[in-house]
Sequence to fold (172 residues):
Amino acid sequence: MPAAEEISEIVIRENIARAVADVFKTMLGRPVSLDTSVDEKKIETHLAANGVPQVVGTVGFIGEANGLVYLYMDETFASQCTGQILGMTDFELQAAGDDVVNDAIGELTNMVVGSFKNALCDAGYPCKLTIPSILRGRNFRIESTSTAQRRSYRFACGDHRVVADIILKPTD
Fold:
């Protein structure tokens, strides 16, 4: 089986773009498009310094390909997505608290990464998903080790932005 560092940027980009678009269309009824006007370094700088509260879902995968996918969105958009998925009003969401948003974004991330993982499996990199988790905050930065392959992609969903940050670890 080929090592994870051999997964091409094209395979990563096409499959994460398809996964994000399919899940957002199915679960939210919203079209999403890959924003090719920005490069990865600008995306990383934007994430680290924008000061807007973020909700970040993360799910890993292990096997012939090992890595993590972080799905970033601002807190307001995360709440809107949750309301749409669960059919809840803004008032109901506020009463329910952050845990409901965390659960919904965790599941949304799980679906995106599951679709991405299936494409990796189809490409000859069988792997399994890990349990979703959520990060919340502002002005934070997620860094990878120097041996990891990192790819970041920004998506437009109406007036909102979603970033998929993918970190692949080479297999031993």
